[in-house]
Amino acid sequence: LRQLPLPPEAAPTTSIDEWTQTITDLMADGLGPRAIYDRIRLEDKSFMGSYWAVKRFVKRARKARGVRAEDVAIIVDTAAGEVAQVDFGYVGKLLDPEQHVMRRAWVFVMVLGHSRHMFCKVLFDQKTETWLQLHIEAFKHFGGTVKVVVPDNLKAAVIRNAFGVGEGTDLNRSYGELARHYGFKIDPTPPYSPKKKGKVESAVKYVKSNALSGRDGEDITKVNAMLMNWVVETAGIRIPGTTHKQPL
Fold first, then answer.
1. For residue 89, which of 193, 190, 189, 204 has the smallest C-alpha distance?
2. CB 139 within 8 A of CB 145
3. With 0-12 CB in 10 A as exposed, 13-18 as middle and 19+ as buried, what is 165?
4. How far apart, in whole angstroms, are the C-alpha atoms of residue 215 and residue 97?
5. What is the distance between the alpha carbons of residues 58 and 31, in angstroms, rounded to a whole number?
6. Residues 220, 122: contact at Cβ < 8 Å?
7. Percent of the chain topping pLDDT 90
8. Which helix (H) or strand (E) element contains residue 204?
9. Whole-model pTM?
């Protein structure tokens, strides 16, 4: 017998039919297919759609506007426990629940060079004491320290960075004391040398485009609570194209 085609009203549905508007809204906020899938799956446990269904929908929706080129990550292999890279990234304005006002916010990211496991937290300032406290929280999160920390050239880490012949790097004294206490070496990023901290720059972009995209105006306390879960349940079990292993 020849199988007859299904009538239009009986056509099979996809696993994301009821989520298409949500996906469209998240696309408008700048999220890609992986970020959209992770966001919906993390925030609504009733979502049973597949990543591939989301990806196909996004691909079709992007045809009219074109696809933006992705940045290429620079792969530098490091041994386990050897290096961590740290940086800040601006994430827009969030609600300060104590002052009841909107404030400019940044995300601090520390990423382990070998596994790509990360610690991240959103905050309202980049003061020295904040920078030091974030390192302490990151080490507690990882359960240990690394041999070398590579920071960007912000004032909290490096007061004067001169990589010319015969010139040294003056580190913030408090940061140096923290390094001595925990037993790690500080190796600042040379100016205009993004290759040296490519992993953390990629990590900051990932956090901003995945976990933090479209969250302008939200309560910073709730955002940080979300990040604590996201870094384990989403970022921790992803499979980076460079390592092909889950960071956790």
1. 204
2. yes
3. exposed
4. 15
5. 10
6. yes
7. 29
8. helix 198-210
9. 0.65
